Amino acid sequence: xxxxxxxxxxxxxxxxxxxxxxxxxxxxxxxxxxxxxxxxxxxxxxxxxxxxxxxxxxxxxxxxxxxxxxxxxxxxxxxxxxxxxxxxxxxxxxxxxxxxxxxxxxxxxxxxxxxxxxxxxxxxxxxxxxxxxxxxxxxxxxxxxxxxxxxxxxxxxxxxxxxxxxxxxxxxxxxxxxxxxxxxxxxxxxxxxxxxxxxxxxxxxxxxxxxxxxxxxxxxxxxxxxxxxxxxxxxxxxxxxxxxxxxxxxxxxxxxxxxxxxxxxxxxxxxxxxxxxxxxxxxxxxxxxxxxxxxxxxxxxxxxxxxxxxxxxxxxxxxxxxxxxxxxxxxxxxxxxxxxxxxxxxxxxxxxxxxxxxxxxxxxxxxxxxxxxxxxxxxxxxxxxxxxxxxxxxxxxxxxxxxxxxxxxxxxxxxxxxxxxxxxxxxxxxxxxxxxxxxxxxxxxxxxxxxxxxxxxxxxxxxxxxxxxxxxxxxxxxxxxxxxxxxxxxxxxxxxxxxxxxxxxxxxxxxxxxxxxxxxxxxxxxxxxxxxxxxxxxxxxxxxxxxxxxxxxxxxxxxxxxxxxxxxxxxxxxxxxxxxxxx
Length: 583
What we know:
The protein is α/β, with parallel strands linked by helices. 62% of the residues lie in helices and 10% in strands. It contains 21 helices and 12 strands. The protein has a 6-stranded mixed beta sheet. A 4-stranded antiparallel beta sheet has the order 2-1-4-5, with no helix packed on it. Helix 6 packs antiparallel against helix 7 and helix 6 packs antiparallel against helix 11. It is elongated, with a radius of gyration of 35 Å. It starts with a helix and ends in a 13-residue tail after the last helix. The C terminus is likely disordered.
């Protein structure tokens, strides 16, 4: 864990080294001040020597200025190092997440990843700054003050030593109990963020079903759980303050009593007693700072583990040593393919799939919910790897391709259509960053999106809100199809991507594909028979197995599942929106 986190300091190593150096210098200067004060009292005030008071007083001013300068510089470099460390952590986590396969992403919730990049990184930033500053300053101050105390009076210094040992033991017990509560609390942030994220993203559904009170109750429960855990942790940690105060005042009383007797016995001067009392405060305040550091480190350990979990996660998909960087055609072959999302699953999601699809064919894929249609097409672009067998594109196993090459030639419009905040043109150019406006317009015409875009006041410069909330479901689907077409792929996969458009528009989109991109292999997953019945061949899946594969007429004659679906959808006179929804 330390190696993983330490690698993120990088360009801030200099600041990370200078911070503790300035902190140590500040402590050394502060340690001299009580010693100089004792000299003023004993050799200046008591002796009536004004020149000595002026001389030593001037030295004290210089030492104080040097201490102030060191403190300022330590704060400056500490802030730079800690914020830079936090920046690098966020950047490294974000870049690591970009390399994750779907299998990796399935391990983490979106809310969990957001919590790691916000709350957990902030905890690490605060902890790192305290380690650089307080973790250096407190021990140095403790050691210097203790050394000066033994130099002045070993007998009285033993009081400090006993107090330090007692406080150290108490602090260890407090931290042990607090750590348990902090470890339980931070994962609960994931539940809280998940509640907020789900509520905000589905706010229209929440309001439509008048479930605001239910969502408020969910959030309240998640928030109350965090409150209870942190209250327990803070109640444990707060015991440190009264114990520390009791020890401080006890030491002051003991030192004052013993010191007064030693002054009467002429074995200690007034100035030395004043210095010892000052060093007493330094020692005990150092312990207080150390306790704060330990509490912060305790809190950050849980965060550190969660961050390292992401940084050390290795993608289940990697490029081969010598990847193939070109795809000859859009042919696809499934060679005895079986697939499971988890290696220890008893039943595979897909079982012994054997298919051969010729380049340029249009293949319809149909099947009931849970028949693994999406799982099948996810293997083509290698979003997941097969458990057994092989998927070949252009005659080459997809595991032998460079991932970027493969995915640039296999365009997938997934079930969950996502548009990003930005203009329509900016969203379309996700498919091709160098596409001209004419290219974008052409792709939109193929996807039957140009008509509604032209109706917008700003046309292709219309701003799309985050998630595409200011366009309809059908418009979003068509924009996503146009974006995929701009990639000019050898294989185009539409995963139920026309479900929100009427049948007439669906037919126009399919006709555009047939006329404009005849060389592209097209895989169309759909729930409507009308969307796939004109395909070259149709694949019927049932429970992760091939139930039928053939033309529309062949499946009507030979496949009971396909025939039942066809009759249920067409027995009443066809789809209701066959003419674009007109009555």
